[in-house]
Amino acid sequence: MFTENSELTQAIRAKFAHVDSCPFQGPRIFFENAGGALTLNTVVETSALFAAIPDNQGRDNPASHALVSKIKQAKADMAVFFNAPGGQFFVGESGTELTFRLIRTAAMGTPDGAVIGSSVEHPASRSAAQHWAAMAGKPYINVPHDDATGQVTPAAYAALMTPEVRVATILHTSPVTGIANDVAGITAAIRAVAPDAYVFVDGIQHASHGRIDIASYNIDGYVISPYKLFSRHGYGIAWASGRLSALPIETLKGGPAGNWEMGTRDTGSYATFSDVVRYFEWLGQQVSDETAPRARIEAAGAAIHGHEKQLTDAMLFGTGNLAGLADLPDVTILGGADNPDREGLVCFALKSVPAAKIVEQLNAQGIRTHLRKADHYSGNILTPLGLDAAVRVSLCHYNTMDEVRTFLTAIKDIAE
């Protein structure tokens, strides 16, 4: 979608900090976006601005009023970006912390029953669901994912659903395989059997690839980590439905009912997310004739998806006279080489070269990737495939075909 070295490509890359060099390593290609995407320059500036302001919200002075206004604006921006006309948004320590909090509220606030989730999930939601199911005296139902595709399907959930399910968890996209799941379809399968279940979605890996549409999912909770969506570390964002917020939640005695926010908020967290939304609107304006903010965000998401597919297809199947990863002997491509639900990520292993050595040699050539080990983060995906480790190459829309070519040239030498 973004032609090589076009004005738009250069304009996109100019909006991000450290796009082609690391302050500690020097020049490098950044293919570690699933571990944390590049940061918008506007986010850096906004963070510095609000970090220096001494005032709190809720006071009768101009600075305090401005802080409250920024938070209100950011929540309105979140509603548009996520397409969530109802419910409420709030920030917390991290995406993982918010995931535990929402799942805890649902598990502890519902009558006897069961909690259901899948084996494909990141431990943020899987650990939270299993822990709070045990604390609430509810059995945990494990839905197995398909090892070949790296996905879990609506049919797999439907096969294990019971009317006693009170809480369900869904992973939108895997940070190990990069394969997305059918959130709306899974939710429909859950609600066909347990219509009143509280449904939670981990959107942390999905977010940077665009196309979040809460209104179409029929869910109760959605969480992201903004440092994986072009913002910064130090906060997570949660959306909670009105009925989830009506359950007993931790709040100050005598305070507003249904208030998830604990203590003084970091205005900079909210303000930096507004920067992200402005960026998506800008990108949508470059790739479409849309004028409404939500329509521009949707156009940006479609363009992002199209460009990232071009890059991952080239990485898998080759480009020009360069062979792709799928052409290498004894290669394992997690999720399968030809998977239409892939989102900007390729994870692979070679029998001939240990994954750790591949990551090390790529890094020595200025190509940043990541080693996924069969540990508590990735063992649920890697162990059934007989892998102790794999190489994760994760892209975002600011990456280029030139960078993919450099990667493929390096991999060819390493494999030989």
From TrEMBL:
Residues 29-406 form the Aminotransferase class V domain. The keyword Lyase applies. PANTHER family: CYSTEINE DESULFURASE. Keywords: Lyase, Pyridoxal phosphate. It comes from the Bacteria. This is Selenocysteine lyase/Cysteine desulfurase. Pfam families: Aminotran_5 (PF00266). The keyword Manganese does not apply. InterPro entries: Aminotrans_V_dom (IPR000192), PyrdxlP-dep_Trfase (IPR015424), PyrdxlP-dep_Trfase_major (IPR015421), PyrdxlP-dep_Trfase_small (IPR015422). GO terms for molecular function: lyase activity.
